[in-house]
Amino acid sequence: MNFERALCWIRRDLRLSDHRALFEACQMAKGVALVFVFDTTILEKLKDRDDRRVNFIYQSIKELDQNLKDLGSGLITLYGDPRIEIPRLARQMEMDVVVCNRDYEPISKERDETVEATLRTMDIPFKTFKDQVIFEGRELNNQKRQAYRVFTPYKNAWMKKIDKEFFLEYTPDYKKLIPIKEIKPFLKPLSLKKIGFKPSSLWFSAGEVSAELQLSRFLNQIDHYKKNRDIPSKEVTSELSVYLRFGLLSIRQLIRQIIELKTEGAQAWLTELIWREFYQMVLDRFPHVAHSTFKPEYNSIEWSGTEQMFKAWCRGQTGYPLVDAAMRNFNATGRMHNRLRMITASFLVKDLLVDWRKGEAYFARYLLDFDLAANNGGWQWCASTGCDAQPWFRIFNPVNQSKRFDPQGKFIRKVIPELAGFSDQDIHFPASTNQETQKKADCLIGRDYPHPTVDHNLQRSLVLELFKK
Ligand SMILES: Cc1cc2nc3c(=O)[nH]c(=O)nc-3n(C[C@H](O)[C@H](O)[C@H](O)COP(=O)(O)OP(=O)(O)OC[C@H]3O[C@@H](n4cnc5c(N)ncnc54)[C@H](O)[C@@H]3O)c2cc1C
User: pTM value?
Assistant: First the structure.
Protein backbone atom coordinates (compact mmCIF):
# COMPACT_ATOMS: atom_id res chain seq x y z
CA MET A 1 0.00 0.00 0.00
CA ASN A 2 1.30 3.41 -0.87
CA PHE A 3 0.28 6.40 1.15
CA GLU A 4 1.82 9.83 1.17
CA ARG A 5 1.57 10.47 4.91
CA ALA A 6 0.88 8.23 7.90
CA LEU A 7 0.10 9.21 11.46
CA CYS A 8 1.43 6.72 14.00
CA TRP A 9 -0.50 6.98 17.27
CA ILE A 10 1.47 5.63 20.22
CA ARG A 11 -0.28 4.60 23.44
CA ARG A 12 1.21 1.82 25.54
CA ASP A 13 4.22 1.43 23.24
CA LEU A 14 6.44 4.37 24.19
CA ARG A 15 9.53 3.37 22.25
CA LEU A 16 11.08 3.70 18.79
CA SER A 17 12.87 0.37 18.51
CA ASP A 18 11.22 -2.90 17.44
CA HIS A 19 7.88 -1.11 17.08
CA ARG A 20 5.40 -2.87 14.85
CA ALA A 21 3.01 -0.02 14.04
CA LEU A 22 5.82 2.44 13.37
CA PHE A 23 7.56 -0.15 11.22
CA GLU A 24 4.39 -0.73 9.19
CA ALA A 25 3.73 3.01 8.87
CA CYS A 26 7.23 3.50 7.45
CA GLN A 27 6.61 0.65 5.02
CA MET A 28 3.31 1.98 3.74
CA ALA A 29 3.90 5.74 3.61
CA LYS A 30 6.46 8.20 2.34
CA GLY A 31 6.31 10.30 5.50
CA VAL A 32 5.39 9.36 9.08
CA ALA A 33 4.59 11.53 12.11
CA LEU A 34 4.13 10.28 15.67
CA VAL A 35 1.52 11.47 18.14
CA PHE A 36 0.79 10.80 21.80
CA VAL A 37 -2.42 11.98 23.48
CA PHE A 38 -2.62 12.69 27.20
CA ASP A 39 -6.07 11.21 27.47
CA THR A 40 -8.36 13.40 29.57
CA THR A 41 -10.92 10.61 29.94
CA ILE A 42 -8.26 8.77 31.97
CA LEU A 43 -6.44 11.70 33.57
CA GLU A 44 -9.57 13.34 34.92
CA LYS A 45 -10.36 10.23 36.95
CA LEU A 46 -6.99 10.21 38.72
CA LYS A 47 -7.30 11.52 42.26
CA ASP A 48 -3.64 12.30 43.04
CA ARG A 49 -2.08 15.25 41.27
CA ASP A 50 1.40 13.79 41.82
CA ASP A 51 0.39 10.46 40.23
CA ARG A 52 3.51 8.34 39.68
CA ARG A 53 2.32 6.79 36.43
CA VAL A 54 1.59 10.16 34.84
CA ASN A 55 5.11 11.20 35.86
CA PHE A 56 6.56 8.02 34.40
CA ILE A 57 4.71 8.48 31.12
CA TYR A 58 5.60 12.16 30.97
CA GLN A 59 9.31 11.47 31.42
CA SER A 60 9.26 8.61 28.91
CA ILE A 61 7.50 10.83 26.38
CA LYS A 62 10.10 13.54 26.89
CA GLU A 63 12.90 11.09 26.15
CA LEU A 64 11.06 9.76 23.11
CA ASP A 65 10.59 13.30 21.79
CA GLN A 66 14.32 13.97 22.21
CA ASN A 67 15.14 10.72 20.38
CA LEU A 68 12.87 11.79 17.54
CA LYS A 69 14.51 15.21 17.47
CA ASP A 70 17.89 13.51 17.18
CA LEU A 71 16.46 11.80 14.12
CA GLY A 72 15.33 15.14 12.70
CA SER A 73 11.64 14.87 13.59
CA GLY A 74 9.64 15.27 16.84
CA LEU A 75 6.71 13.94 18.83
CA ILE A 76 3.33 15.64 18.62
CA THR A 77 1.72 15.63 22.06
CA LEU A 78 -1.92 16.47 22.57
CA TYR A 79 -4.14 16.82 25.61
CA GLY A 80 -7.78 15.81 25.24
CA ASP A 81 -10.11 12.97 24.29
CA PRO A 82 -8.32 10.87 21.64
CA ARG A 83 -11.66 10.03 20.02
CA ILE A 84 -11.80 13.67 19.01
CA GLU A 85 -8.11 14.63 18.94
CA ILE A 86 -6.83 11.86 16.64
CA PRO A 87 -9.34 12.37 13.80
CA ARG A 88 -8.96 16.14 14.14
CA LEU A 89 -5.17 15.97 13.89
CA ALA A 90 -5.33 13.51 10.99
CA ARG A 91 -7.51 15.96 9.10
CA GLN A 92 -5.46 19.04 9.97
CA MET A 93 -2.23 17.31 8.93
CA GLU A 94 -3.83 15.85 5.81
CA MET A 95 -2.85 12.33 6.78
CA ASP A 96 -3.75 9.46 4.47
CA VAL A 97 -3.76 6.75 7.11
CA VAL A 98 -3.64 6.37 10.90
CA VAL A 99 -1.84 3.37 12.42
CA CYS A 100 -1.39 2.03 15.94
CA ASN A 101 -0.70 -1.11 17.94
CA ARG A 102 -3.69 -2.99 19.32
CA ASP A 103 -4.81 -2.73 22.93
CA TYR A 104 -7.06 -5.40 24.46
CA GLU A 105 -8.71 -3.56 27.34
CA PRO A 106 -12.48 -3.21 26.84
CA ILE A 107 -12.45 0.60 27.12
CA SER A 108 -9.52 0.88 24.71
CA LYS A 109 -11.26 -1.37 22.20
CA GLU A 110 -14.34 0.86 22.34
CA ARG A 111 -12.20 3.98 21.97
CA ASP A 112 -10.44 2.54 18.92
CA GLU A 113 -13.75 1.56 17.32
CA THR A 114 -14.99 5.13 17.72
CA VAL A 115 -11.78 6.56 16.25
CA GLU A 116 -11.99 4.15 13.34
CA ALA A 117 -15.62 5.06 12.67
CA THR A 118 -14.88 8.79 12.70
CA LEU A 119 -11.86 8.38 10.44
CA ARG A 120 -13.98 6.32 8.06
CA THR A 121 -16.31 9.27 7.58
CA MET A 122 -13.23 11.22 6.53
CA ASP A 123 -12.03 8.46 4.18
CA ILE A 124 -8.93 7.88 6.27
CA PRO A 125 -8.13 4.21 6.92
CA PHE A 126 -7.27 3.12 10.46
CA LYS A 127 -4.85 0.22 10.64
CA THR A 128 -3.95 -1.69 13.79
CA PHE A 129 -1.21 -4.23 14.51
CA LYS A 130 -0.22 -6.86 17.05
CA ASP A 131 2.70 -5.67 19.17
CA GLN A 132 1.99 -6.00 22.87
CA VAL A 133 1.84 -9.81 22.93
CA ILE A 134 3.32 -12.74 21.08
CA PHE A 135 -0.10 -14.38 20.63
CA GLU A 136 -3.34 -12.46 20.64
CA GLY A 137 -6.45 -13.82 22.35
CA ARG A 138 -7.81 -15.64 19.33
CA GLU A 139 -4.53 -17.13 18.13
CA LEU A 140 -4.49 -19.94 20.70
CA ASN A 141 -7.51 -22.20 21.13
CA ASN A 142 -8.08 -25.60 22.66
CA GLN A 143 -9.19 -28.60 20.63
CA LYS A 144 -12.81 -27.47 20.85
CA ARG A 145 -11.69 -24.19 19.28
CA GLN A 146 -12.47 -22.38 22.50
CA ALA A 147 -10.36 -20.10 24.67
CA TYR A 148 -8.23 -21.77 27.33
CA ARG A 149 -9.43 -21.46 30.91
CA VAL A 150 -6.48 -23.15 32.55
CA PHE A 151 -2.91 -21.91 32.42
CA THR A 152 -0.85 -25.10 31.91
CA PRO A 153 -2.52 -26.27 28.66
CA TYR A 154 -2.40 -22.64 27.47
CA LYS A 155 1.31 -22.54 28.20
CA ASN A 156 1.85 -25.87 26.42
CA ALA A 157 0.01 -24.59 23.35
CA TRP A 158 2.03 -21.35 23.50
CA MET A 159 5.30 -23.28 23.65
CA LYS A 160 4.25 -25.53 20.79
CA LYS A 161 3.30 -22.66 18.51
CA ILE A 162 6.18 -20.30 19.23
CA ASP A 163 8.42 -19.85 16.25
CA LYS A 164 10.81 -17.21 14.89
CA GLU A 165 8.08 -15.56 12.83
CA PHE A 166 6.35 -14.53 16.08
CA PHE A 167 9.33 -12.68 17.50
CA LEU A 168 10.75 -10.96 14.45
CA GLU A 169 12.34 -7.59 15.00
CA TYR A 170 10.45 -4.68 13.46
CA THR A 171 13.00 -1.92 12.95
CA PRO A 172 11.27 1.15 11.51
CA ASP A 173 12.82 3.00 8.60
CA TYR A 174 13.50 6.22 10.52
CA LYS A 175 14.36 8.03 7.28
CA LYS A 176 10.62 8.17 6.67
CA LEU A 177 9.99 10.39 9.70
CA ILE A 178 8.54 13.71 8.61
CA PRO A 179 11.15 16.45 9.19
CA ILE A 180 10.59 18.72 12.14
CA LYS A 181 10.09 21.87 10.07
CA GLU A 182 7.03 20.31 8.42
CA ILE A 183 5.34 19.35 11.69
CA LYS A 184 6.42 22.39 13.68
CA PRO A 185 2.94 24.03 13.79
CA PHE A 186 1.67 20.92 15.57
CA LEU A 187 4.47 20.64 18.12
CA LYS A 188 3.11 22.36 21.19
CA PRO A 189 5.17 21.17 24.14
CA LEU A 190 3.09 20.19 27.18
CA SER A 191 4.51 20.48 30.67
CA LEU A 192 3.31 18.35 33.58
CA LYS A 193 1.82 21.52 35.03
CA LYS A 194 -0.12 22.22 31.85
CA ILE A 195 -1.81 18.83 32.05
CA GLY A 196 -2.66 19.45 35.70
CA PHE A 197 -0.06 17.28 37.48
CA LYS A 198 2.89 17.74 39.80
CA PRO A 199 6.27 16.00 39.81
CA SER A 200 6.62 12.97 42.09
CA SER A 201 9.59 10.85 43.05
CA LEU A 202 10.01 7.64 41.09
CA TRP A 203 12.13 4.81 42.40
CA PHE A 204 13.42 4.01 38.96
CA SER A 205 14.01 5.93 35.79
CA ALA A 206 11.63 6.27 32.90
CA GLY A 207 12.52 5.94 29.22
CA GLU A 208 13.75 3.38 26.73
CA VAL A 209 17.41 3.65 27.77
CA SER A 210 16.62 2.82 31.40
CA ALA A 211 14.44 -0.08 30.29
CA GLU A 212 17.34 -1.54 28.27
CA LEU A 213 19.68 -1.10 31.22
CA GLN A 214 17.30 -2.83 33.59
CA LEU A 215 16.91 -5.69 31.12
CA SER A 216 20.65 -6.23 30.80
CA ARG A 217 21.08 -6.05 34.59
CA PHE A 218 18.44 -8.72 34.98
CA LEU A 219 19.79 -10.99 32.23
CA ASN A 220 23.12 -11.05 34.07
CA GLN A 221 21.43 -12.60 37.07
CA ILE A 222 18.63 -14.58 35.45
CA ASP A 223 20.16 -17.86 36.69
CA HIS A 224 19.15 -16.97 40.27
CA TYR A 225 15.57 -16.26 39.29
CA LYS A 226 14.02 -19.67 39.82
CA LYS A 227 15.56 -20.25 43.22
CA ASN A 228 15.01 -16.82 44.74
CA ARG A 229 12.10 -15.26 42.92
CA ASP A 230 9.71 -15.74 45.85
CA ILE A 231 11.92 -14.06 48.44
CA PRO A 232 11.14 -10.32 48.39
CA SER A 233 14.31 -9.28 50.24
CA LYS A 234 16.53 -10.91 47.58
CA GLU A 235 15.31 -8.59 44.82
CA VAL A 236 16.12 -11.02 42.00
CA THR A 237 13.07 -10.49 39.82
CA SER A 238 13.42 -8.41 36.67
CA GLU A 239 11.50 -5.28 37.77
CA LEU A 240 10.52 -4.92 34.13
CA SER A 241 6.75 -4.90 34.59
CA VAL A 242 6.43 -1.14 34.41
CA TYR A 243 8.56 -1.01 31.24
CA LEU A 244 6.48 -3.76 29.70
CA ARG A 245 3.26 -2.08 30.75
CA PHE A 246 4.12 1.11 28.90
CA GLY A 247 5.89 -0.64 26.05
CA LEU A 248 9.37 0.74 26.64
CA LEU A 249 10.57 -2.73 25.76
CA SER A 250 9.15 -5.01 23.11
CA ILE A 251 7.93 -8.41 24.26
CA ARG A 252 9.47 -9.88 21.09
CA GLN A 253 12.87 -8.58 22.14
CA LEU A 254 12.57 -10.35 25.50
CA ILE A 255 11.56 -13.59 23.84
CA ARG A 256 14.42 -13.34 21.33
CA GLN A 257 16.86 -12.94 24.19
CA ILE A 258 15.70 -15.85 26.32
CA ILE A 259 13.97 -18.42 24.15
CA GLU A 260 17.18 -20.28 23.41
CA LEU A 261 18.42 -20.20 27.02
CA LYS A 262 17.66 -23.57 28.50
CA THR A 263 18.63 -22.70 32.07
CA GLU A 264 16.07 -23.17 34.83
CA GLY A 265 16.10 -19.44 35.55
CA ALA A 266 15.31 -18.47 31.96
CA GLN A 267 12.60 -21.11 31.65
CA ALA A 268 10.94 -19.99 34.88
CA TRP A 269 11.01 -16.39 33.71
CA LEU A 270 9.55 -17.33 30.32
CA THR A 271 6.65 -18.93 32.21
CA GLU A 272 5.92 -15.57 33.87
CA LEU A 273 5.89 -13.83 30.50
CA ILE A 274 3.38 -16.46 29.37
CA TRP A 275 1.23 -15.72 32.45
CA ARG A 276 1.20 -12.13 31.23
CA GLU A 277 -0.11 -13.29 27.84
CA PHE A 278 -2.60 -15.65 29.49
CA TYR A 279 -4.25 -12.80 31.38
CA GLN A 280 -4.21 -10.57 28.27
CA MET A 281 -6.02 -13.38 26.47
CA VAL A 282 -8.53 -13.75 29.34
CA LEU A 283 -9.34 -10.03 29.27
CA ASP A 284 -9.66 -10.03 25.50
CA ARG A 285 -11.91 -13.08 25.30
CA PHE A 286 -13.82 -12.76 28.57
CA PRO A 287 -14.16 -8.98 28.95
CA HIS A 288 -16.78 -9.43 31.71
CA VAL A 289 -13.89 -10.10 34.13
CA ALA A 290 -13.18 -6.36 34.19
CA HIS A 291 -16.25 -5.83 36.38
CA SER A 292 -17.36 -9.24 37.67
CA THR A 293 -16.04 -12.63 38.69
CA PHE A 294 -14.80 -14.94 35.96
CA LYS A 295 -16.85 -17.71 37.53
CA PRO A 296 -20.39 -16.30 37.76
CA GLU A 297 -21.30 -18.47 40.77
CA TYR A 298 -19.00 -16.37 42.96
CA ASN A 299 -20.49 -13.02 42.01
CA SER A 300 -23.12 -13.25 44.70
CA ILE A 301 -20.80 -13.88 47.67
CA GLU A 302 -21.71 -11.42 50.40
CA TRP A 303 -18.41 -10.20 51.75
CA SER A 304 -18.79 -9.16 55.38
CA GLY A 305 -15.47 -7.33 55.89
CA THR A 306 -15.93 -3.80 57.25
CA GLU A 307 -14.65 -0.48 55.91
CA GLN A 308 -12.48 -0.25 59.02
CA MET A 309 -10.78 -3.54 58.14
CA PHE A 310 -10.25 -2.41 54.58
CA LYS A 311 -8.64 0.81 55.82
CA ALA A 312 -6.38 -1.12 58.22
CA TRP A 313 -5.22 -3.23 55.26
CA CYS A 314 -4.63 -0.17 53.05
CA ARG A 315 -2.56 1.53 55.75
CA GLY A 316 -0.57 -1.57 56.72
CA GLN A 317 -2.12 -1.72 60.20
CA THR A 318 -3.48 -5.27 60.32
CA GLY A 319 -1.14 -6.59 63.02
CA TYR A 320 0.29 -9.18 60.59
CA PRO A 321 3.83 -7.91 59.94
CA LEU A 322 4.53 -9.19 56.43
CA VAL A 323 1.13 -7.96 55.19
CA ASP A 324 1.73 -4.59 56.83
CA ALA A 325 5.30 -4.28 55.56
CA ALA A 326 4.12 -5.06 52.02
CA MET A 327 1.33 -2.47 52.18
CA ARG A 328 3.43 0.26 53.79
CA ASN A 329 6.21 -0.24 51.27
CA PHE A 330 3.62 -0.22 48.48
CA ASN A 331 2.09 3.05 49.71
CA ALA A 332 5.53 4.64 49.76
CA THR A 333 6.77 3.41 46.38
CA GLY A 334 3.96 2.09 44.15
CA ARG A 335 5.77 -1.23 43.79
CA MET A 336 5.08 -4.66 45.23
CA HIS A 337 6.82 -8.00 44.83
CA ASN A 338 4.68 -10.76 43.31
CA ARG A 339 4.73 -12.97 46.42
CA LEU A 340 3.65 -10.00 48.53
CA ARG A 341 0.82 -9.21 46.10
CA MET A 342 -0.39 -12.76 46.58
CA ILE A 343 -0.10 -12.62 50.37
CA THR A 344 -1.77 -9.22 50.80
CA ALA A 345 -4.54 -10.00 48.30
CA SER A 346 -5.26 -13.33 49.92
CA PHE A 347 -5.27 -11.69 53.36
CA LEU A 348 -7.76 -9.01 52.33
CA VAL A 349 -10.17 -11.51 50.83
CA LYS A 350 -9.76 -14.64 52.93
CA ASP A 351 -8.85 -13.15 56.32
CA LEU A 352 -10.62 -9.80 56.30
CA LEU A 353 -13.48 -11.04 54.09
CA VAL A 354 -13.43 -7.86 52.02
CA ASP A 355 -14.65 -7.98 48.40
CA TRP A 356 -11.62 -8.54 46.15
CA ARG A 357 -12.78 -5.72 43.88
CA LYS A 358 -11.92 -3.17 46.57
CA GLY A 359 -8.38 -4.47 46.78
CA GLU A 360 -8.14 -4.62 43.00
CA ALA A 361 -9.18 -0.96 42.80
CA TYR A 362 -6.67 0.05 45.49
CA PHE A 363 -3.84 -1.66 43.60
CA ALA A 364 -5.08 -0.12 40.35
CA ARG A 365 -4.87 3.32 41.89
CA TYR A 366 -1.30 3.07 43.17
CA LEU A 367 0.60 0.34 41.28
CA LEU A 368 3.20 1.86 39.03
CA ASP A 369 2.95 -1.18 36.77
CA PHE A 370 -0.86 -1.31 36.91
CA ASP A 371 -2.19 -3.36 34.06
CA LEU A 372 -5.89 -4.24 34.01
CA ALA A 373 -5.36 -7.76 32.65
CA ALA A 374 -2.60 -8.79 35.10
CA ASN A 375 -4.09 -7.03 38.11
CA ASN A 376 -7.55 -8.43 37.56
CA GLY A 377 -6.15 -11.90 36.83
CA GLY A 378 -3.96 -11.77 39.95
CA TRP A 379 -6.82 -10.66 42.18
CA GLN A 380 -9.26 -13.20 40.83
CA TRP A 381 -6.61 -15.89 41.23
CA CYS A 382 -6.09 -14.97 44.90
CA ALA A 383 -9.82 -14.60 45.56
CA SER A 384 -10.44 -18.00 43.90
CA THR A 385 -13.03 -16.45 41.59
CA GLY A 386 -11.04 -16.43 38.36
CA CYS A 387 -9.54 -18.42 35.55
CA ASP A 388 -7.37 -21.28 36.81
CA ALA A 389 -7.54 -19.66 40.25
CA GLN A 390 -6.23 -20.94 43.54
CA PRO A 391 -8.91 -23.39 44.82
CA TRP A 392 -11.12 -21.64 47.41
CA PHE A 393 -10.33 -24.18 50.12
CA ARG A 394 -6.59 -23.42 49.87
CA ILE A 395 -6.00 -20.43 52.10
CA PHE A 396 -2.67 -18.74 52.74
CA ASN A 397 -1.69 -18.61 56.40
CA PRO A 398 -0.09 -15.13 56.65
CA VAL A 399 2.26 -16.15 59.45
CA ASN A 400 3.48 -19.31 57.72
CA GLN A 401 3.92 -17.39 54.47
CA SER A 402 6.03 -14.87 56.36
CA LYS A 403 8.22 -17.59 57.92
CA ARG A 404 8.68 -19.21 54.55
CA PHE A 405 9.33 -16.20 52.32
CA ASP A 406 10.92 -13.74 54.75
CA PRO A 407 12.59 -16.25 57.09
CA GLN A 408 14.81 -13.78 58.95
CA GLY A 409 12.26 -10.99 58.70
CA LYS A 410 14.66 -8.94 56.54
CA PHE A 411 11.89 -7.33 54.55
CA ILE A 412 9.75 -6.70 57.64
CA ARG A 413 12.66 -5.12 59.55
CA LYS A 414 13.50 -2.84 56.63
CA VAL A 415 9.97 -1.47 56.33
CA ILE A 416 8.79 -1.61 59.96
CA PRO A 417 11.85 -0.77 62.03
CA GLU A 418 9.79 -0.75 65.26
CA LEU A 419 9.59 -4.55 64.92
CA ALA A 420 13.34 -4.99 64.38
CA GLY A 421 14.01 -5.96 68.03
CA PHE A 422 12.02 -9.21 67.77
CA SER A 423 13.83 -12.49 67.09
CA ASP A 424 13.68 -14.21 63.69
CA GLN A 425 11.13 -16.53 65.25
CA ASP A 426 8.82 -13.93 66.82
CA ILE A 427 8.88 -11.25 64.16
CA HIS A 428 6.28 -13.02 62.01
CA PHE A 429 3.58 -12.68 64.65
CA PRO A 430 4.76 -10.58 67.58
CA ALA A 431 1.26 -10.48 69.10
CA SER A 432 1.86 -14.02 70.32
CA THR A 433 4.81 -12.94 72.53
CA ASN A 434 4.52 -11.99 76.21
CA GLN A 435 5.01 -8.52 77.70
CA GLU A 436 8.56 -9.29 78.74
CA THR A 437 9.61 -10.23 75.20
CA GLN A 438 7.89 -7.13 73.86
CA LYS A 439 9.68 -4.93 76.39
CA LYS A 440 13.01 -6.49 75.42
CA ALA A 441 12.22 -5.83 71.75
CA ASP A 442 11.25 -2.27 72.69
CA CYS A 443 7.91 -2.70 70.96
CA LEU A 444 4.66 -3.07 72.86
CA ILE A 445 1.83 -4.57 70.85
CA GLY A 446 -1.12 -2.20 70.99
CA ARG A 447 1.15 0.78 71.62
CA ASP A 448 3.97 0.62 69.06
CA TYR A 449 2.44 -1.87 66.65
CA PRO A 450 -1.26 -2.79 66.23
CA HIS A 451 -3.01 -5.81 67.71
CA PRO A 452 -4.05 -8.32 65.03
CA THR A 453 -7.28 -7.19 63.36
CA VAL A 454 -8.53 -10.78 63.08
CA ASP A 455 -7.81 -14.32 64.21
CA HIS A 456 -6.63 -16.20 61.14
CA ASN A 457 -8.08 -19.58 62.15
CA LEU A 458 -11.49 -18.13 62.89
CA GLN A 459 -11.57 -16.18 59.61
CA ARG A 460 -10.47 -19.25 57.76
CA SER A 461 -13.54 -21.16 58.86
CA LEU A 462 -15.78 -18.18 58.04
CA VAL A 463 -14.48 -17.83 54.51
CA LEU A 464 -14.81 -21.57 53.90
CA GLU A 465 -18.47 -21.25 54.95
CA LEU A 466 -18.95 -18.31 52.60
CA PHE A 467 -17.61 -20.21 49.62
CA LYS A 468 -19.55 -23.36 50.49
CA LYS A 469 -22.78 -21.36 50.59
C1 LIG B 1 -2.95 -9.46 43.14
C2 LIG B 1 -1.98 -9.29 42.01
C3 LIG B 1 -1.99 -8.13 41.25
C4 LIG B 1 -1.08 -7.96 40.19
N5 LIG B 1 -1.13 -6.81 39.44
C6 LIG B 1 -0.28 -6.65 38.40
C7 LIG B 1 -0.33 -5.48 37.59
O8 LIG B 1 -1.17 -4.59 37.77
N9 LIG B 1 0.61 -5.35 36.60
C10 LIG B 1 1.53 -6.32 36.34
O11 LIG B 1 2.34 -6.15 35.43
N12 LIG B 1 1.57 -7.45 37.06
C13 LIG B 1 0.71 -7.65 38.09
N14 LIG B 1 0.79 -8.79 38.84
C15 LIG B 1 1.74 -9.84 38.46
C16 LIG B 1 3.13 -9.74 39.12
O17 LIG B 1 2.99 -9.56 40.50
C18 LIG B 1 4.01 -8.62 38.55
O19 LIG B 1 4.01 -8.69 37.15
C20 LIG B 1 5.44 -8.76 39.04
O21 LIG B 1 5.49 -8.68 40.44
C22 LIG B 1 6.29 -7.65 38.44
O23 LIG B 1 7.61 -7.74 38.89
P24 LIG B 1 8.77 -8.15 37.90
O25 LIG B 1 8.73 -7.31 36.69
O26 LIG B 1 10.04 -8.12 38.71
O27 LIG B 1 8.35 -9.63 37.54
P28 LIG B 1 9.18 -10.89 37.00
O29 LIG B 1 9.02 -11.95 38.01
O30 LIG B 1 10.53 -10.53 36.58
O31 LIG B 1 8.30 -11.35 35.74
C32 LIG B 1 8.55 -10.88 34.41
C33 LIG B 1 7.33 -10.26 33.81
O34 LIG B 1 6.32 -11.23 33.64
C35 LIG B 1 5.04 -10.65 33.87
N36 LIG B 1 4.43 -11.34 35.00
C37 LIG B 1 5.06 -11.92 36.04
N38 LIG B 1 4.18 -12.52 36.85
C39 LIG B 1 2.96 -12.32 36.32
C40 LIG B 1 1.65 -12.71 36.69
N41 LIG B 1 1.39 -13.44 37.76
N42 LIG B 1 0.62 -12.29 35.91
C43 LIG B 1 0.84 -11.57 34.81
N44 LIG B 1 2.06 -11.18 34.41
C45 LIG B 1 3.11 -11.56 35.14
C46 LIG B 1 5.26 -9.18 34.18
O47 LIG B 1 5.12 -8.45 32.99
C48 LIG B 1 6.70 -9.17 34.66
O49 LIG B 1 7.35 -7.96 34.48
C50 LIG B 1 -0.14 -8.99 39.90
C51 LIG B 1 -0.12 -10.14 40.69
C52 LIG B 1 -1.03 -10.30 41.73
C53 LIG B 1 -0.98 -11.56 42.55
Answer: 0.97
344 CB near ligand 1 (under 6 Å) = no
**CA 364 to centroid of ligand 1, rounded, Å:** 13
Contacts of 396 (CB under 8 A, 6+ apart): 342, 343, 346, 347, 350
Q: What CA–CA distance (Å, rounded) separates 58 from 52? A: 10
Question: What residues contact 422, with CB distance under 8 A and at least 6 apart?
Answer: 409, 430, 433, 437, 441, 443
Q: Has 376 been annotated as catalytic?
A: no
Cβ neighbours, 10 Å, residue 401: 21
For residue 350, give every residue at least 6 positions away whose Cβ sits within 8 Å of its Cβ, in sequence order, or none: 383, 395, 396, 459, 460, 463
Task: Name, in order, each residue with C-beta under 8 angstroms of 62's C-beta and a sequence gap of 6 or more.
Answer: 207
| Ligand 1 contact via 342 beta carbon (within 6 Å) | yes
* Domain annotation for the chain: domains and CATH numbers: 1-131 (3.40.50.620), 133-169+209-285 (1.25.40.80), 296-468 (1.10.579.10)
C-alpha–C-alpha distance, residues 229 and 238, integer Å = 9
Question: Is the distance from the beta carbon of residue 245 to the nearest atom of ligand 1 less than 6 Å?
Answer: yes
> Out of 356, 375, 376, 381, which one is annotated catalytic?
356
Residues 292-351 have pLDDT tens digits of 999 988 988 999 999 999 999 999 999 999 999 999 999 999 999 999 999 999 999 999
CA distance 217 to 228: 16
* DSSP class per residue in 69-117: HHTT--EEEEEE-HHHHHHHHHHHTT-SEEEEE---SHHHHHHHHHHHH
225 lines ligand 1 (CB under 6 A): no
CA of 90 to the centre of ligand 1 (A): 36
What is residue 24's three-state secondary structure?
helix
